[in-house]
Fold these 4 entries.
Entry 1:
Amino acid sequence: MTRRSFRFWLIALPVIYGLLSIADLFSTGLLHFLVPLTTALTVVILAGMFQRRISFLQQLRTTWTGLVDAVQDAVQFTELTQPEAPDFAKLMKKLGVAADNYRSLFNNLEGSRRAGWFPPFESLKRLQETISEYYLAADYSDAKQQKACDQVRDFWKQVRSPLLDEFDCPDPPSWEGEEPSGGSFF
């Protein structure tokens, strides 16, 4: 369950419950007798939502580890002076597996209906194309290496951003020129 849908249901369920309670005040009072059932049902639904979110985050962490490993290998590949075919094949397999794992997490993303929008795993496919073009061109000059490495890093930034948003991690504080709160490190 993505962060967006989780937040929606976390707000929607109490609102629905509250509206039913208000509507019941003006009718037969049946909800008064069903309070234990409706409360239990709401708790069960919320527990299921929390479980889905926790499961999603666990899968996301596993996928994150694979993505970081694959992208680091791609950066290292662009820095080889004479890349070999086995290295290329291993890297393409690793990038393909990482893209499919990523796609499996975000298969029904909102926004797919917007013009000009593409899913975050599309950048992984473009990263694969960049590595493939670099290797198959057989021109491993410093300029080509740098261009391929820069493209890999740019695509990684596009892939990384939606994942970090899903982790719900706040931005770290800026400690430039300041001492962090809580005193000295020593």
Entry 2:
Amino acid sequence: MHNAIIRRGSARTASVASVIAVALVAGCDGPAGTPQSLEATSTANATNHTASARLALDPGPAAQLRDSISGARFAAPRGLRLEAEHFDHDEPGQIKHSLTLAGPRGAALSVDIWSNPTRLPLARWFDRHLAFVRDGHAAVDWVPLTRHQVMGMLIERPRTPQAYGQRIALFALGARVIRVSCYDRDEPDALAAFEQVVGTFELEGQP
């Protein structure tokens, strides 16, 4: 399996530092054993794959994705486009990095990363900053998550007449809290991509 590594272009430090958009398509790798470097602003060769599922994902081997600014690294199905926003603050309750994985018909998953400099335990951090997610309809379980099997929260939000059902994974790695959200848990490709991202997720520099 070849790696597809996302590299960020020139930095712009503002409230939103940058947006990265890269299309991942089958056959984008270089010679065997050589990772293909994808430029952050290059979408000229983007193509859609034909499949029966709504996301139209490539059924081949997963792409290995890396965001060098946040340090996030994970596998995801080919055919998803990675977009990233980076914010120039470190407030514990405000998102520091926001990654989106989108298919031909729109966003399917998001990865949001917060700073947690005091390493507040996850349950207390959740109650302080994201308690609104656990409304009367949401189910919450504690389960092993990520490549390192750290204990985290798996939140199921049922479908309503106004919104798709969501599946959310929340976990802490070092001084960061990470939320991975599947926007439509009833869409098979989106849910499969969610499971792959969560199951392979790691932050560079964290054990």
Entry 3:
Amino acid sequence: MPQRSRPCRSVPRRCRRPGRGAVVTVAALALLAAACSTSGRRDDAVHVAGADRKVKLELSSGPVEELIVARDTAERFVVSGLCFFPDGTRLSVALYDSAGVCRARTTPTIDQARFRSLPLGDEGGGWPPGRYAVELSAEFAPGAQPAEVLRALGSGRETRLDGMTRSRQGHPAYARRFQVRL
């Protein structure tokens, strides 16, 4: 005996379609889930070097606009970039291996909106090809930065850019980490 479709029960008119409130709630939950997701963060992506043996990142927001990670002739890493911190700002540039161990650290100073690190490598040369993390950071506190940099930055309360946070002492700070395969 063939099956027949059954007629639907009578549904009260107010329950037939989701109301405006339900649509707004679903949309808000979807936006919240997307905002809380960490899988789409640019910092989590692994940036791969091209044939020229360098990784060039053009960042859309934040005080660092451009970041270039390259190898020198001794296979050491050199990190340079363009940023909008005041001239004289001391940045910390650190290189981490794939296990998360800090392998090298240097402190370039910003001059005319540009910075360039010393070569990051050991005495005998550089590091083997692979995945590394490059971390840029700066704390804007007395003693960590020159007085003219602190005056130019002010309280830092108006700084709401990617990577800008507050240190444990309440001073403005910057920290971003980028994954590279080089």
Entry 4:
Amino acid sequence: MINIFQPFGFALLSLLLLGLPSELNAETQEPSKVIECSYVYWDDMLDDEFYFRIGDVYYPMKFLRNKRSKVVSVARMEEFEMFRKVDKPLEGEDLYEFVAETIVPHDARRILFLVIAPNQEDEDYRVFALDDSSLVFGRRTFRFVNLTQQMISVEFAGETQQVDVDGVVVMESNVDEKGGFVPCIMRDPEGGTIYGTRLFAQPNGREDVFIRPSPIKGRKAPSIKFISQFIAIAPVENKQ
């Protein structure tokens, strides 16, 4: 079980729109000076436009509805800050205001930034940086991310893992080449069932499972968002 969430503040160095390196080279060599980033927004619709900063320049975070954004390559950083435009700024005031920040895993080459709007438990926006490399989060796996205020026990594919508050656990689905449905049960610290279903797992896919408190006050069942991604298999060259 790994806990990758930490609060923080930062400025990006320089935006580099580079081609993606091969999966093998990107994840077996020493950490490069460039990381590949994508973004996910919790809600179905954005309630504002968000930006990240490189030096004195602000670049838009281009979210896609219910899926990962396109990948951009940026200079490796230690901290990531998110901003939005100030509504009707007065003369001399900054055009952008700080929204949220997070620490970036120091050894990660690929990062998924998750942005969460305020709710009844979180009064402010939150942003999290997840190590998105295939060595950490590969094919046939599900990544359970606990954004609630209590520990959650996840029973999945015959295994049980405890996911701490602001914690993440990656679990194997163990499906064959045809894929299939895998039972999943989530329990609260007292052992009560708060969620149960069968999740479809693909042999060449991976799935994020973001778990957040229900927006309905007093309801035990959490609100859950699923984000799927297909992982292409590198072609094998024929040897003569």
